[in-house]
Each structure stands twice: as C-alpha cells, then as structure tokens.
Amino acid sequence: MKRRDFLAATAAAALPLACRPKPAFPFGGELVGPNLALGHWLKGGAFPDPERFEPISTLVVGGGVAGLSAAWRLAGGGLDDFAVLELETEPGGTSRSGQNHVSPFPWAAHYLPVPDRGNHAVLRLLKECGVLEGFDAKGDPVFAEEATVRAPEERVFAHGQWWEGLYLRAGASPEDERQYHAFFREVDHWAAFRDRRDRPAFSIPRSRCSDAPEARALDQLTFAAWLDQHGLQSPRLRWLLDYACRDDYGSRLETTSAWAGLFYFAARKQGPGEDSRPLLTWPQGNGFLVDHLRRASGDRLRCGVAATAIRPDKDGLLVTAWDAANQRRLGWRARRVIFAGPQHVAKHVVEGLARPTAARIHNAPWLVANLTLRARPKEPTFPLAWDNVLRDSEALGYVAATHQSLRDHGPTVLTWYRPFAGADCDAERARMRALDWPACARMVLDDLRPAHPDLTELVTRLDVMRWGHAMVRPTPGLLWDPEFLALARPFGAVHFAHTELSGLALFEEAQDHGVRAAEEVLAALGRRGKSWR
Amino acid sequence: MDEAAQPTLKAPLLFLSVLLISSCGLIYELVAGTLSSYLLGDSVTQFSTVIGVYLSAMGLGSYLSKFLQRGLARRFVDLELAVALVGGFSAPILFQAFAHTHAFRVVLYSVVASVGTLVGLEIPILMRILKDQIRFKDLVAGVLTLDYIGALFASLLFPLLFMPKLGLVRTSLLFGLLNAAVGLWSTHLLVSQLGPTRMIRLRCLAVLAILAVGLAFAGKFTLAVEEEIFADEIVYARDSEYQRIVLTRGRGSFQLFLNGNLQFSSADEYRYHEALVHPAFGVRPDAQRVLICGGGDGLAVREVLKHPSVREVVLVDLDPAMTDMARRQPMVRTLNGAALDDPRVRVVNADAMVWLQENAVAPFDLALVDFPDPNTYALGKLYTARFYRLLQRRLTADAVIAVQSTSPLMARESFWCITATMESAGLKVRPYHLAVPSFGVWGFALASKRDFAVPTRVLPGLRHLSDEATAAMFAFPKDMDRVPVEVNRLDNQVLVHLYAREWRRWS
After folding, report:
1. Quick one: CA dihedral B24, B29, B34, B36, positive or negative?
2. Gap between the Cα atoms of B481 and B484, Å rounded
3. Shortest CB distance from A408 goes to which of B351, B386, B490?
4. Going residue by residue through chain A (533 aa), what tens digit of pLDDT does each one get?
5. How many CA atoms lie within 13 A of A399 on its CB side?
6. What is the CA B57 to chain-centroid distance, rounded?
C-alpha cells in the first residue's frame, strides 16, 4: 500500500469513529456464561424422546467439581463405561477458569486450604497433580512451594491506604485486641474438641465432623447471635467475620449459622493455638484442579449437553438430553445415574422426585469480573498481594492472577468478586440479572476507585460472569437437619452429588459427594473396593 | 549623578568583561556537552552536535545584532542578564527535562541555541559600543584576543577545577552569577551611555539574587532532592518502568544507585565482582556456558569474559533501561569494557525467575546470581528455595553457582538465611566473604548440586584476588558465623522481614 493510500484509508476508517459518541469506557468486554437460556429452558419440560437410547453403565449428569470427581472415582474404580454430561461449554462449574494473552485466571473458586492428613481424597488428587511432594517426619503432608500462596497473601484497604493482612491492626483499641483474641480462643476450643469417637467438631470435608449435640447446637443460632452471646461486639472483629461469611457463603453474620461461621475458622486450624493452614492456589484458581480431574473423563465428557429428563425403565433409567451444539436429541439407557447438579434442577429433571426439604436450600448469586490490565496500578503503600480487600465495600476485593505465576511487573488480570448477600436470594438474583455489561463495569470501577483512582486507564478488557446460583447458604438449622442430610441419599438408581448437599460451597465438599456417589454406584455394580474418602 | 558627566568609557575594564563573558559562554557550551554525553552516552556525537548548534546559534546572534539600533549600552546589560539566567540555569533545566519529560533532546538543543544566540549578540554589541572610543584595528585585536583567552581559561578550568569541585549544576549557576555580575559592573562602566541606572541596577540585583538562591539550593534544583542524599553530584538519572537509576560522580569515582541503594562504586567494585565471579570458576575452570541473573551493569560479565573457556554468556536482567545504560553511558561502558557488546554475550530483559520458569534452554555450566538486596517482596522471591530449584533445572549436573547474599556482618541472619535456603533446595553451599569498602563486609554463597572443595586457584592477574586471598574468604570469624534461621520460601518470604529488621539498625 502506498503511503498516500494508507493515509486515505486511515482517514476513511477514522471518520465514522470521530462521528460516533465517545464510548463510556475506554475498554471492551462482555457478559459471559453461564448459559441462562439453556439452563432455564430445562424447566419448560416436555421434550420428545430421541430416536434411540444408547446403553451405558453409568451416566454422570453435571460436569462441575462433584460430577468430575465422581467420574474420576469411577475411572479409578476401573469403570470405563460412563459419560459425563455438562450443560455449559466448559466443565468445572464454579471452579471454572479462563485464559487470555496475559494470564490464566479463575472465574470463581480460587484456592484450597492445604488438607490435613486425614483428607484422603484431596491428598490423592494433589499427589496426582504433583502438588503433594511427600510427608514430613511427623507424617504431615508437604506441598510444592509454587502452589502455596506466595507472600504477601492479603492486604486490606482502609483509611485511604493498603495494610498488610486482612484484620486491620492499625488503630485497634485494647478492647478490639482483647475480643480478637477471645474469639480465636473460642476457635481453639472448637479446634481441640473431640467427641467420644475421637471425631473433631470441625473438619473438611464435613462428613468427618462430629455430630455431638454440643457441636450441633451451634447450628441453631445465627453467627451474629452467637457473637452477641459471647460479648464479641468489636466492629473490627465483626467486620472480619462478616467478610468471612460473605466470602465463603455469600451471606451475612445475621443469616449464617454459627456452626458454619466457626467451621470456616476451626476446620482450617492445624491444631489449637496454631496458625491456619496455608492455602494452595494457582494462577487459574481451582481451574487447575478441574483441568486435572477432567482428564479422568477424557472424551467421555460431553459439554454443551443438557440432560432433560431422567425416568425409571424396567432395568435402569432412561435419560434424554439435548445436544445444544449439534441441535439434536440424545438418549441413554443407564444402569445408574449420578445427578451432580443442584436440587432446584433435579426436581425438573428427575421424574417423580418430590423432596420438600430441597426448597430450603438457597443459593446466593455472585458477580465475578475479570479485569485485564496493561500495567499495574500505582502502589505507594503496602504492595499488591494475592488477595486484595477493600474494607468499606459490599464486594470482596480482587485476586491477582499473576501473583502466583511470579510476574511482578507489567500486565495482569484481576478477578473481582461480589456476592449478593441480601437476605432474599430470589430478589438478589433478580437484581443481579437486571445488570447489563455497562452497569456491571461501572459497579466494578466504582468499587475499586477509592483504592485505584488510576484503574480505568489501565484496563484493557473487563468481562463479567453472573452466577445466579453460586453458593449454597448455610442458614441456621439447615446443616444438621436430618431431612436435609437425607437429600444425599439415592432416589432409586439415581445418586446425588453436589456441594450444596453439605450446605457449604467448597471444592472439598463437592469432591467428597462426588467420590461418595461414585462409590455407591461402584458398590451397586459389584465393584466394591477400598474407599478413597 | 556625578558620574553621568564623565565623557569617556573605561575601555580597558570593558576588555576585561570580554574575557569574563567569553569564559561564561564557553562554560555553558561545555556544561551542555558534558551533561548530554552523561545522560545520552556517545560523547562524540553529543559534543559535536552541541558545539555545532552552539556555534551556529552564535552566528545567528551576530547576524541579529545589526537589527539592534538604539540604546546599545542598555541592551548590553539586559543581554548579560538574559545570558546569566538562561546559561546559569541551563544545567538544572536540562537535568529536570531529562528526569521529567520525554523530549530531552528538544530541550537540550533549545537551551544550547538560546544561549548561543545570546552569546553571539554580546561581542558585536560591545564592539559597537566601543567603536567610537578605540581605533578599529585595536578594537578587533583586543576584543578577539581576550575572547579567545577567556575560552582557554574556561576550557582549562572546567575539567580541572569546576567539574570536580562543583559539579555541573553549581558550575553553571556560578557562571550565571558571573555573567550577571558583569551586567551589574557594566552599569558602572557604561554609565555615560545608560541614562538613569536605578531600575537597571535593581534588575541586575534581582537576577543575582535569583541565581544565588539557585546556587544555595543547587541540590534541590538538580534531580528532586537526591543530591543531598547521594552526597555527590548526579550525572545520570532515569525513572525506568521498574526502578530509579542514578549515577553520581565525585571524589575520583562514580557510583550507581537503584532506588537509592548503592549498587557499586567504581573505586572498589572490582573487589566485589572478582569475588562474585572467580571463585566459581575456581571450581569449574572449564565452564563454557554462563548464566548471569541480574548484573545488568555488565561488570560481572567483564570478569566472566576474562576466562578463555567461556563461549556463551546469557545475562538476564529485568530492566532494559539498565542494560542500555551499561552499553551506552560512557563511564559505565568504559568500566565494564563494553562487555555487553561482546559477541559471546546475549542480553535478555526479563524477570529472571519467570524466565527460568518458562524458558527451556541448553543447560549452563556456571551461574552467577547478582540481584539487589531483598528489600521488597518482588526481590525476596529471587532468594527463595523455589528460585534455587528453578535455577538448578537449567544447570548441568556439576554446575557451580555463586550468589551475592548481603552482608554477613550487618545482616547476619539474612546472610545465613540465604545459605540455609539454598541448602534446602538440595545444594551443597560454601559461603564466603570479603571487605568491599563502599558496602562493608560483603558475603556470597558458592554452591553446587555435588559436593566440592573450596577453590584454591584463581585466574592470575586480578586486582584483588590471589590464590591465598581466595581460600581465606571462606573462613568466618565468630561475629559472622552461622546462626540458625528459617528457610526463605515463596509462602513465607521471611528474608524480606529479616533483612528489613537487620538493616534498620545501620540506617
């Protein structure tokens, strides 16, 4: 192209740009999944049967962590004849991750507290991924340095500057300090608790927890009421604990069970008086674990396929599904089905399933944004950490994807989290769904502006994921309700696996249910072996 | 005023001011030339272009002088004041322009052209003032003789006296004062042609005062407030994407600072770099492929290239501004012997740890780790067990590593933390130390995957290290001997905290 032609072409191209109104944001982005339309379409019911039903031993419905873990366990038990159906185009559920030219990044769950020596399934998984390096002289697991959260782990923005750690020590009164220590003495008490069968009150996964009445009693009151009972009113302490509830449960002190509130802290203690367990993380968050788990399924994982109905047949189950990518109906005749989706979907898909307790499960909606930055914001105070929290915010702050990949300079991706923690999940969901991309982008930038006034100029892209049903809320009275716990039991030949069956949204809970359901299936198929749990 | 009645000018004294103003003019030219070659490197180009622009601007000034018709004496005094201000502040203006704008060359040539034009006006106007008093042949001979003698004084005194004693900023301000003083003195010498002198003298005094204030606060005028901190004159300063790079010069040597921390002094860096490089070669005298992490100043490369076995050197330094300076800044380039332009050397600008993690390259026989001290988390990661593990992945089985590891005397726990961390990564480590006057007692760690003996032979012909001196570095007296410390890991970064605590005692 000649120079003159080039100039002419440039001018011609620039003309409409110049006439257009100035865009509201100097960067692009979009709302990405999950696939609301396809998901909600399932509720419509009435799907015609496919032309044929393919025989299969076991069908796993749902390719989140529970479903992938079930498949991982089935494959480990020597069962090859299975398939995993996932509605979305990518597996992993709320442990999904993404990747762009700067870095891989999480779309939701992004860490795992290091498991204790009794958490066999997680240890097995981490060993397979090369993260568990061995055991020390005391028999405790040793993890790869590069997977352990790199220091500085967290910082908090308050009073116009960043401070190391999450609990703001600067300016704390002696009474604040006293209450802080009093709370952690209570945590230590519960960390030390063992019942008559030597089970701890709090452990991960919760299937290892004691059902002793004194521990279960904690589930009868809210975390806020429990704090009141113990005279813990320090605003700093209550901020920290409320943050923990929003972060792990998408709920508030006033709507969280005290059992769940204490679980968050006591289950992570290495022992009474000791530090919390370190965290394991990866640039793509728990997407790292998903990438490993999905390998066990290989091409038996079918993404973009939604199970539309599961109904009993003479010797097994008939499963119909919709292959959205190829626009065709599919069918299987399965001996067993592991339903690894939430109960609010199960009731539309599993024929004859009527479990009123399931209506007591409430899932908090979450908004997650990934901001790609061309350079780091200016940091005159405490430097960028892995987890960066703004104290005076409804959101939870952001995680820097490049922190763990050791990139301290240049472009980065920040993953920003905001739970909709209001008491009414349905109303909160409607509120979130009403936000279009510009509204979401504005929400993110407005939230971060106090800490990073220069951010807008640094963002090159901002993508948003609206999770309608991100996290089950551990509301008081739910977690130890026998009818709630019974939701994990099979319904005919349909087995259930999902983190919400624990009442806690954690990778380990999803994995535990997946492994349990798979072991139920293996036993039913006559493949009894040593449990991985 | 009674002087107003005086009929003739004081011609001999006016000749003396020719001497002074020509000295001033040449000083401004030398300041601009020196400053631009410090900052931009390539002194031949800088001096040529500065002299060219300056002389042609003088020509322009001489030409423009014909348009000045009346009130020549008053014009002359104003001219002196203008030269005093522009020339006097030329060095501070240029340093500021370099530090804060991207248009340093534009400012440089504008300042040089302005000063040149003004200086070019001086002599023609003075000659026209004097032309009625003195015969033309005497006038031309006298003025030009003194003009050239003034240039000689300036060119001799600038490198011998003013640069070493005062530095660029104070020199330029001092000569600005001299120019303004000539202006004030001229109001006395030219009083017969000036008419009322009160206002013009006040102007002279004001300019003198401004320059005097400039001189008093020369440190603050140069590059932020750094000159006070650095004690010596700053000759190069650049804010790169990663750090602030400052070169200072004084007391017969020059120094490099990164973010205000001394990296080397040209007076004793040979002790540091010989100790970093040659003991490792004592263990692997046949090393062919050498990796250097950090060390963008090129001084370690200089030492490495003394070994005839070396075929390839890969230098991984984060900051292109640093390696560019090492290539182009004349003082640094001379000190490192243009090592970075040696055909055996490949420079990679990357974070060394990310580079080690993500780039598979042929294994190295020898690695030198020369990072700044661990005073931030971003630097602390370069001293973790993970770093030494990643490094070993890029080395041959019998490769040897030398790591700068801060002072075993001033930061004893930090020093031994680095040793303990390297050991935890599966290395056999032999720490050593020597005195580097600019730093104090300084420590290193020599390591290899296999056990090895303390080196007892080094390359002959070094300035500091001999065979005996090398062996002696490995003995630790009691006050620097090993202390138990935690291992520095990515997830604890204990070294950053240790280091901050220990060095606080000494600052």
Report:
1. positive
2. 10
3. B351
4. 444 555 455 555 554 444 455 567 899 999 997 776 776 666 665 678 888 999 999 999 999 999 999 999 999 999 999 999 999 999 999 999 999 999 999 999 999 999 999 999 999 999 999 999 999 998 889 999 999 999 999 999 999 999 999 999 988 999 999 999 999 999 999 999 999 999 999 999 999 999 999 999 999 999 999 999 999 999 999 999 999 999 999 999 999 999 999 999 999 987 777 888 899 999 999 999 999 999 999 999 999 999 999 999 888 999 999 998 888 999 999 999 999 999 999 999 999 998 999 999 999 999 999 999 999 998 888 999 999 999 999 999 999 999 999 999 999 999 999 999 999 999 999 999 999 999 999 999 999 999 999 999 999 999 999 999 999 999 999 999 999 999 999 999 999 999 999 999 999 999 999 999 999 999 999 998 999 99
5. 26
6. 29
Backbone angles phi, psi at A476, to 5 degrees: -55, 140
Token duo for residue B332 = 């640094």
Q: Encode burial over A414-423: b for 16+ CB neighbours within 10 A, e otherwise.
A: bbbbbbbbbe
Taking the C-alpha atoms of residue A203 and residue B419, their distance in angstroms, rounded to an integer, is 38
Query: How is A450-493 classified by DSSP, letter by letter?
Result: TT-TTHHHHEEEEEEEEEEEEEE---TTTTT-HHHHGGGS-BTT
Contact at CB, A146 and B490, closer than 8 angstroms: yes
Q: Is the peptide bond before A34 cis (omega within 30 degrees of 0)?
A: yes
What is the distance between the alpha carbons of residues B335 and B333, in angstroms, rounded to a whole number?
5
CA atoms within 13 A on the CB side of A161: 7
Rounded CA gap, A465 and A222, in Å?
30
Catalytic residue among B297, B317, B370, B373: B370
Per the CB < 8 A criterion, the answer to whether A357 and A348 are in contact is no
CA atoms of B46 and B40, how far apart (whole Å): 8
Q: What are phi and psi of A450, to 5 degrees?
A: -55, -35
**Around Cβ B150, how many Cβ atoms within 10 Å?**
22
* Closest to B331 (Cα-Cα) out of B363, B355, B297, B364: B297
Amino acid (1-letter code) at residue B268: D
- Specify the residue for token string 């750690």: A165
Q: Shortest CB distance from B490 goes to which of A150, A383, A407?
A: A150
**Helix orientation angle between B90-100 and B104-130, rounded to the nearest 10 degrees:** 160
Minimal C-alpha gap between A396 and chain B (Å): 22
Sort A396 into a burial class: Cβ within 10 Å, 0-12 / 13-18 / 19+: buried
Q: Are B68 and B75 in contact (CB under 8 A)?
A: yes
Chain A nearest-CA distance from B499, in A, is: 15
Q: What angle do CA A357, A358, A362 make, to 5 degrees?
A: 115
A149 → closest Cβ in B241, B357, B491: B491
The widest CA-to-CA distance across chain A, in whole angstroms, is 88
Beta carbons of A409 and B242 less than 8 Å apart: yes
Q: Does B242 touch chain A (CB under 8 A)?
A: yes
Q: Is A146 on the interface with B (CB under 8 A)?
A: yes
- Terminal CA-to-CA distance of chain B, rounded, Å? 62
**Cα end-to-end distance, chain A, whole Å:** 67
Chain B residues inside the 8 Å CB shell of A278: 491
Nearest CA to A63 among A389, A339, A425, A274? A339
Q: Measured between CB atoms, does A136 come within 8 Å of chain B?
A: no
**Strand segments (E) across A178-304:** 279-280, 301-303
Task: Tell me the residue length of chain B.
Answer: 507
Cβ atoms within 10 Å of A326's Cβ, excluding its own: 10
Distance from CA of B496 to the nearest CA of A (A): 10
CA distance linking residue A245 with residue A251, whole number of Å = 6
User: What's the CA gap between B112 and B343, in Å, rounded?
Assistant: 38
